[in-house]
Amino acid sequence: xxASFIARTCSDLWSLLYPQYCAGCTDALQYSEKVICTNxxxxxxxxxFKAGTxxxxxxxxxxxVKVESAVAYLQxxxxxEVMHLLHExxxxxxxxxxxxxxxxxxxxxxxxxxxxxxxxxIPVPLHERKLKIxxxxxxxxxxKGISEITKLPVLTGGLKRNRFNETQTSKGRFERFxxxxxxxxVNSSLxxxxxxxxxxxxxxxxxxxxxxxxxxxxxxxxxxxxAMASPID
Length: 233
Prior knowledge:
By secondary structure, the protein is an alpha/beta fold. It has two domains: about 1-45, no CATH class; about 45-230, Rossmann fold. About 40% of the residues lie in helices and about 15% in strands. The strands form two sheets. The protein has a four-stranded parallel β-sheet with strand order 1-6-5-2, with helices on both faces. Strands 3-4 form a two-stranded antiparallel ribbon. Helix 10 links the parallel strand 5 and strand 6. The radius of gyration is 19 Å and the shape is globular. It starts with a helix and ends with a strand.
């Protein structure tokens, strides 16, 4: 008991001298809280999308590519805790945020059949030049968190980004289509006929994910898609 008391006292003193802050709301974290405060964990706005029900995310892909099911976990709005979390992950390199979001997402969806019979979890890849500049792919940490809960393997070598291109958000539909044509290629020896779960941090227009799914469809993959957040209509 003495050792436990000393450890707790040292931890409290460390927190007092070097406080940690919630990656969502920026409030100081309390003892035992990690990365995100309890309040944010509870109140982050879920989409409550169910897979295979024709939800907003699945409608992104209708008539374009074949997706078995698709979901987004959180509602994305500018200036909110969800945006802060994703910026902390993507632009400040806080990989703990991605891992935690992955675990939270997987924990809330594992009671459904969304993860059943999946062979691989695949992060949307960055171009090697972008990866060198940034130093990490934010989707890798999300996949790691999902894998910790589901025990599904993560495959990072099966899908390759062929070109370094700009964000698609401000482009029109035709321009996005032409800009993402043949954007990705697949390793058919690894993925032919497999069931895969494709993971992205945010889905907005869906054009990048469409470009990922297309070559996977061509080699007979069954594809499910999940993003950690999306704007909601």
